[in-house]
């Protein structure tokens, strides 16, 4: 059974956007916006247009306040995009493939197809994001101060000048400190913040143990998350936290950020345990061989009653002649009502081969897991050295190996494999 090349399959898969809006590509990096970002952008706009700018500039007209507020929200998330794009471009430069960038309610995320292989690459990738944010902040603040002119000199600070400056200067003087704070916050040494990745790179470089370095950075990330949650809870009860203020809204937001960081840190630790356990085993030892195939024109009724029910095989290669066209699995049958099974060919419900990643017999279990997550599927075809289908590797095959393997980390059991999208740079 002949198959498309790995490049054709991966290009087809990478063209499918995840949930949200696809903004296209920038410098060869795919950009997506999660729907949650629009909610946060609306909240930022409402806060600026309905509270901050009326207090700073009571003489501004209502349309002017809302226009400047909307522009501020757009420029802020453009700054976040620049932060993530810096991660992606430097990542590519140091040999880490990037599948795209997603902007969402907590900021942004650059998706790595695999983790860096050297401490230096990790450190450079992590450091460039905060540096970009600080640079944007400094340039914005300086430009705003220059536009404010004498008003900035009399006010003595960015926020003071913003209260008396014109619309453009106000916008820049607000954007500058926000980006500087974003950059400095990301330098906090707790995973998955950029500072946490820098910490992991340093521990990795000193000890030579990637797994230990991840544990240290993860512990630091969870500690930072607990501090944020504690501060947020205190603020919701009216306690003023130095440098953070007080109030239920700000406190709740801090609790949400802490919860997100804690969850991300725990997930990263679990993924590291999983990938370490799978790195040393090739998938030719784990996959299912000797598969029966079905013709693309086979009715679903025949697939169900003559293949799926009598056999333990749950997924079938779909062929047309000697050409492999896709995979059809038991769950695909549910897409069609039983009354229509007789008239529906398997080709109507199969997953096309172009939507699946290509794996070779000698690829590792870790690589299989990465591609299962990248393509959001539960099984992938495996090809031999001549490009012929050799079998299938299932997520369950990897789980079974982990359950039996002695190298299971400190969790006391096999790590879970239900997390998609391994490798993310926040």
Task: Sum this structure up briefly.
The protein is an alpha/beta fold. The protein contains 14 helices and twelve strands.
Structural topology:
Layout: H1 6-14, E1 21-26, E2 29-33, H2 35-56, H3 62-93, E3 98-104, E4 107-112, H4 119-148, H5 150-155, H6 158-162, H7 167-186, H8 194-207, H9 210-236, H10 248-279, E5 294-295, H11 300-308, E6 315-320, E7 323-329, H12 330-333, E8 351-352, E9 359-360, H13 365-375, E10 379-383, E11 389-394, H14 395-404, E12 424-425
Parallel strand pairs: 2-3, 5-6, 9-10
Antiparallel strand pairs: 1-2, 3-4, 4-12, 6-7, 7-8, 10-11
Largest sheet: 5 strands, mixed
Return the string of H and E elements.
Answer: HEEHHEEHHHHHHHEHEEHEEHEEHE
Globular, elongated, flat, extended or rod-shaped: what is the shape?
elongated
Number of alpha- plus pi-helical segments: 14
Q: Spatial order of the strands in the main sheet?
A: 1-2-3-4-12
Uncertain runs: 1-18, 407-424
What is the count of distinct domains?
2
Total number of strands: 12
Roughly what fraction of the amino acids lie in strands? Answer: 5-15%
Mean pLDDT, to the nearest integer, reads 81
Give the N-terminus to C-terminus distance in angstroms.
41 Å
- Rg calculated over all Cα atoms: 26 Å
Which structural class matches the secondary elements? Answer: alpha/beta
* Percentage of residues in helical conformation: 40-55%
């Amino acid at each position: 059974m002949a198959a498309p090349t790995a490049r054709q399959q991966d290009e087809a898969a990478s063209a499918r956007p995840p949930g949200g809006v696809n903004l296209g590509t920038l410098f060869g990096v795919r950009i997506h916006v999660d729907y949650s970002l629009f909610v946060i952008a609306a909240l930022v706009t409402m806060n600026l247009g309905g509270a901050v700018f009326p207090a700073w500039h009571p003489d501004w007209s209502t349309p002017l306040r809302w226009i400047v507020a909307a522009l501020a929200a757009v420029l802020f998330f453009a700054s976040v995009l620049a932060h993530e794009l810096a991660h992606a471009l430097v990542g590519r430069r140091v040999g880490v493939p990037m599948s795209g960038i997603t902007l969402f309610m907590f900021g942004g995320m650059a998706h790595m197809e695999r983790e860096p292989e050297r401490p230096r690459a990790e450190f450079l990738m992590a450091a460039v994001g905060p540096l970009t944010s600080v640079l944007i902040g400094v340039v914005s603040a300086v430009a705003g101060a220059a536009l404010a002119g004498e008003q900035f000199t009399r006010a003595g600070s960015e926020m003071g000048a913003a209260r008396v400056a014109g619309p453009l200067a106000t916008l820049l003087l607000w954007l500058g400190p926000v980006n500087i704070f974003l950059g400095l916050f990301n330098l906090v040494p707790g995973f998955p913040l950029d500072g946490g990745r820098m910490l992991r790179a340093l521990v990795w470089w000193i000890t030579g143990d990637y797994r230990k370095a991840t544990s240290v950075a993860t512990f630091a990330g969870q500690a930072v998350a607990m501090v944020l949650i504690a501060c947020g809870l205190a603020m919701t009860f009216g306690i003023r936290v130095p440098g953070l203020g007080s109030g239920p809204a700000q406190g709740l937001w801090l609790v949400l950020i802490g919860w997100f960081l804690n969850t991300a840190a725990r997930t990263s630790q679990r993924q590291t345990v999983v990938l370490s356990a799978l790195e040393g085993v090739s998938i030719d030892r784990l996959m299912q061989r000797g598969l029966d195939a079905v013709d693309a024109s086979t009715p679903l009724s025949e697939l169900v009653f003559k293949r799926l029910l009598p056999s333990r095989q749950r997924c079938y290669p779909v062929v047309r002649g000697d050409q492999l066209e896709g995979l059809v699995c038991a769950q695909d049958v549910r897409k069609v009502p039983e009354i229509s099974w007789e008239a529906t060919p398997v080709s109507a419900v199969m997953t096309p081969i172009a939507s699946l990643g290509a794996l070779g017999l000698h690829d590792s279990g870790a690589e299989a897991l990465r591609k299962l997550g990248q393509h959001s599927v539960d099984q992938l075809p495996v090809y031999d050295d001549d490009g012929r289908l050799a079998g299938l590797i299932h997520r369950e095959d990897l789980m079974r190996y982990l359950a039996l393997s002695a190298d299971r980390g400190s969790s006391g059991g096999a790590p879970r494999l239900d997390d998609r999208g391994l490798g993310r740079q926040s």
